[in-house]
Design a protein that fits this description.
Oligomer: single chain
Distance between the termini: 75 Å
Strand order of the largest sheet: 5-4-8-9-17-16-13-14
Number of helices: 2
Order of helices and strands: HEEEHEEEEEEEEEEEEEE
Number of domains: 1
Shape: globular
Amino acid sequence: MTDQRLLRASRWIAAGVIAAIAAPSFAHGIWFAQRAKQVALVYGIGADDLDMVRRLPQAEHIAAYDAQFRPFAATARVAGPVVLIDTPAKPVLVSAVLQNGTWSRRGTAEFERKGRDEMPDATLSEKTVKYAVAVEGPLSGRIPALPHQMLQLVPAGPLPDHHGAPLKYIALFNGKPQAGVRVIADMVNDPDAKEVETAADGSVTFPVRNQGLNVLRAVFDGPSDDPKKYDRIEHTATLAFTLAHAPE
């Protein structure tokens, strides 16, 4: 191989390593929000409220929980362009999982919906899974690790009644506190914020950002369970809760 070819190859390898190690986690996610006073499951990032109806077949483990964190029935229903969550009683929590597929790319090119088995020269291949938990009623205690929520962000204390108050969160991976989870405080209104990594005890603290809907996002790159198809599993979780506004 000539020196020029070696140089090009080394640059390509270096670009691939950088992309694999430092790939930014501006990933889309799922979260719960009110739509016409009903609970809706949203897919997007920032102000992008994308097509959740088309993605509904990928959603699974949709659940509701009572004040003692006991599960009860929750059903997703398509209402025009929106996916609503129906429950027989008002829940304290709702949760969901979305299997978002396998994606690969070469260098900094756009991701394609392929695995490494289909794109062997990819510099990054990953399986992506989205999780969502929302607080819909008064909490009787700390939110436990919920079923199927491989990555979960839980408040370490009571929710405050006003924005700006500091609140500590614990990131759970497989039900245990996890260091190195990358968290932002407002996925909807500040999606490009600098991520803050959780400490050794899985904790991170932010001032509550909004006197209204708050959607925190957490991202963690877990090990692959199928290395021939993807290098890692990118877990993206949201925690949503709402602070009440002053009486009218």
